[in-house]
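seq as requested:
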Amino acid sequence: MSLHAQLSPEALAKLDAQKRNSTISSIIIALLICALLVAILFYIALSPLFKNTEEMVTYSSGSESEQEIVKPEMNNEVEKKPSSPSSSMAKVIAANTPSATAVPVPDQLVTEPSLDFGDGDDFGDGWGSGSGNGAGGGGTGFGIPASMKKRCSAKDRIERLLKEGGKEEYEDQVVNALGWLQKTQQDDGSWNAQGKPAAMTGLALLAYLGHCETPLSPEFGETVQNAIVYLIANGKKNGGGLATSTANNEWCYEHPIATYALAEAYTLCKEFRIAIPGLEETVLAAGNLIIGNQNDNGGWAYAYATSGGHTDTSVVCWQMQALKACKTTELEFNGLEKSAKRGIEYLETCTAENGTVGYAGPGGKTTMTPGGSLCYQQWGKGKRSLTRKGIKWMTENNDFDYKVHGNLYMHYYAAQAMINEGGATWSKYNKKTMVNLAENQLDDGSWPKPGKAGHGMSSTHYATCLATLMMETYYRFLPSSE
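struct tokens:
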């Protein structure tokens, strides 16, 4: 027996009525929604016909102090990247434009190494000294190349200092050194130390740029501006060569140092929208001169002899640094990558199996090992076995003591190569070398000539420039590993 529940006829009738009412309600709601959508679309379509066009009003400032920025006609067009709000207004600096003519190679070429200059330890002995005066903060640029951006913020500089084992007071020491350089600048914007103003001006300018000082800087702006203008005028005077005299066989040192400095200046000025007449043309001419005067063996020779002559790693390392700075500008140079590749191949012929880099071949003097290692790192060869062996050799043979073995030329390169390597290698180097370097700065902000300063270092200016660049190692360039 089974039980079945059934609805009564009355209940069924009510249920049917509810279904009909629900269906009718749904149909009505759907119709209302469709009508609403049609109304909305109709309103949107017709609204432009009833919308009043607002009257545009322009306003002009009544300030008489505002001046129209005039860009010099001789500057080539450069695509600008966004710059810092604080540097949004362009600063135009008057300067002579350099000649685009090629630099003649002197008839008298060196066939034997100079015994008093560029001996693989430094520029050479016998340079004079000079002094003078000048006038002169950094900022924050949004388009600064990634490798350089940490130098352009006081906060970032301190952060890098502490992260890499430095001390906060190192920042004050760098500023004090820049203050000393400012006081010793010549009226024409140069530093005439050691009788080589183009090279010494280039080194000083690199020290300012390493702290992101530009012509807009509150304290050092005029100093930087005058140095840049001096080098541009120097290039014009010498037919494109950035040197005291292109008749001097050793101008192969001065030219790349000054080129290196002007290329960095161009990169920073471009990002901060600072237009300096002749700067771009000078950088292009200077970089192309290096490329066009490369020796047949891939190196660079005294007097820029392209065939024969004396080539060595001390000369080559400066050219390679200058080419790297030129590449960072993003300007178009003729055959830059190929020239750099040939330069690396030349350095390889001077590198021994243990990673040491000789002066004019493998073996012999090893003081250019840091320079060669840095060039390998800068041009994408930092992870190779020979580079790592060179770093290991530097770690095991670091006898830096400012008053006894203060070879600043060698350690200018070593500090950069070591921080690129990073880790325990840099930590050990930092504790031994950088602390000792900082302790030997004088109260006036300069560094004295170090112990055994016979490596061509006959001026306080030269020592101060290299020491300052070493102190800026913490933030001047981000390590290649990053």
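Confidence is low (pLDDT under 50) at residues 1-5, 50-90, 94-142.
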